[in-house]
Fold:
Amino acid sequence: MDAMIASIEGLQARDALLALLLEPEPTDRLEWGLAVHRWVRSAGDAHLRVRFDGQGLTPCSGAAPSSAALLDVNGPWSGMGPGLGLPSTARLAWLRRTWSWIGPLGGCPELNSDANDIGEKSRSADVQVDFESGMRVLVKEGHVEWAIRSFGEGSEQAFRKAVRKRWRQVRRSGLPVLLDLSGNLGGFRSRRHAVLSCFLDPMDWPAEMERDWDAAGDAPWEDVPDMPVAALSTDEDVRLAVLVDGLSFSASLLLADALVGADRAALFGCAPLGVPQGCSGSPQPLVLPGSGWIVEVPTRETRLDVTGLVEYELDAAWNGPALSVHRAAAVEWLLGGKPRP
Structure:
């Protein structure tokens, strides 16, 4: 990992970890876990982290701290978040999901939450949800929204059934599509490929390559074949927008990269948890001796051959517009026929 985190943040985190090793007295378990997490997170990879949830800590209940408190680098909550080099939108979204597990450090404040509408629920009677797969379709006036909350939750059979059913519903509508990947932390390649096949002919997919995560810089990449979990008909005529937020990561971003990189879709939302053109994957648990903390370590690395997609150029401010504003901009683009941004 030394080559990955040769930054000021990484060097300071490593020095703090070594300082704890030299302490003559035993280190508090939680303090040690936070020190290890501070070091591994400086690699800027959300797949590489200490798992605080379910590790003997008692989670808080009630309202979450304010956004400013969660992001305070000197406060207890920021210590368990992803690397400081990631966008504030991604750090805040991650901390909103996980803040309760750090209760022993910061107490459990009864503060009013100022969370925006990330993960907002629809009240429309037209919504149909496959609860196990986390997939829903909402037919609205002039467009249809297809939300996929995960490519990893639920069984493969449930996802296959859901994606076929929802794609038929989307096609029957004959409307422009908003593909909502907000809150989608990723999952299996085969499920991502199934959704990609709906909008892009496999002959036009960007080349996908993979290798071991800890491989040397000149290690060869292996070609990844098409492996959709379901065979679906392709519709390349429908107008398509993709919506992401601070928790969009891994497989969901690879899907967005393929669609945007092939000039098939326009991207909307706020800065996500990952970066374009590739990511790590297939994390495995590593139990640290002594403390018993579990560190999730990625084992594979994926790269997409897309040109011109260097940055997402999405809003990265934690106090920027709510997700509903970005959703409205995507719908306006879908209905207005304006040029892609």
